[in-house]
Every structure is written in C-alpha cells, then in structure tokens.
Write a structure and sequence with these properties.
The chain is mainly α. Helices cover 50% and strands 7% of the residues. The protein has a two-stranded antiparallel ribbon. Helix 1 packs across helix 4 and helix 2 crosses helix 4. The structure holds iron/sulfur cluster (SF4) (2 copies). The site of one iron/sulfur cluster (SF4) has 9 residues, from loops. The site of one iron/sulfur cluster has 9 residues, from loops.
Length: 151
C-alpha cells in the first residue's frame, strides 16, 4: 500500500487528526521516559541520522508519519541517504515529532537495554490504535514515506 493512501484517511478526518494528536505525544512522552537513562550514552555526533555513512535504515508507520506531517508541513529537499531534518549545527530540527526509531536507537547502549523489545512494544500500541480505528496499516522507509506523504 502506498504511504499516501494509508495517511489520507487520517489527515482528512478532523476527529481522527485530533485523536492522533492526543495519542502520539502521550506515546512519545512515555517512550522518552523509558529511554531517559540511555540518553547519557549519546554523544550527539549525529552519525545515525546520516544513513549512508551509518548504514542504518529508518522505518515508520503511517500513524507516525501522519502525526509528523500534521505538525511539520514544510517539505525540505529529500537528499538520498541522509535525513532532511538533520542540521549540521543544531542536530535534529524536528525532535518533538521524530519517529519511534529515532527515539529508541542508541549506538552504544548498556547491555540491559533491548531496543528491539521497546521498539516492538511501542509498535504494537500503534497497531492497536490503527486497529481500533479501522485504519489501514503501512510501514515504510522514512525518506520514501516523506516523499510520498500528502501535505
Ligand atoms: S546514538 Fe550514537 S551515532 Fe547516534 S548521535 Fe548518539 S552517539 Fe551519535
Ligand atoms: S528525524 Fe531527527 S533524529 Fe530522526 S533521523 Fe531525522 S534528524 Fe535524525
């Protein structure tokens, strides 16, 4: 399924937009609290946002993307292999709205940290919201999703 067709029903429904705008910040807030102890392991070198050099691949659900485009309507130029919201000096310019993968990834976490478990648990709550609202689900590579997302 194309990203746009999985996002349109959310963007076009005012009630759904409101519900997404309540659900996502609460989910992100909880997630950020869970990873707070890991923040000190990050040197803020920004390498993980440069996909070509880090080899990382960021994926997003349509719910993350819908919440993102509701709040960040400006479309920057998509540069292959690098997140367009990365600023060399400031780092991430969309921190408040960044997807789950950006929040859970740490390149040198303590051994007790399971990124996979946290990521999957968070994803299952996204899926539950989508199911409860009888929406279609899509999971897309970040840059592809951004380029296809309706604004
Ligand atoms: S998680 Fe690692 S690669 Fe990413 S900004 Fe922090 S130190 Fe750099
Ligand atoms: S949204 Fe922010 S944290 Fe995520 S890859 Fe882009 S610049 Fe990095």
């Amino acid at each position: 399924m194309l990203t746009s067709s999985a996002i349109h029903p959310i963007l076009e429904n005012a009630e759904l937009r409101t519900q997404v705008s309540q659900f996502m910040p609460s989910l992100y807030h909880e997630l950020d609290r869970s990873v707070q102890p890991m923040q000190q392991t990050c040197r803020n070198c920004k390498k993980c946002c440069d996909f070509a050099s880090s080899g990382l691949n960021l994926f997003v659900t349509n719910l993350e993307l819908a919440y993102f485009v509701i709040n960040v309507p400006a479309v920057p130029k998509i540069i292959t292999g690098r997140c367009p919201y990365l600023d060399e000096n400031q780092g991430c310019t969309v921190r408040e709205f960044r997807p789950i993968g950006c929040r859970t990834y740490f390149c040198a976490p303590p051994k007790e940290y399971s990124e996979q478990t946290l990521y999957e648990n968070t994803l299952s709550r996204i899926k539950q919201f989508i199911e409860n609202h009888r929406l279609a689900y899509s999971y897309t590579e970040w840059l592809k999703g951004l380029s296809e997302a309706p604004r």
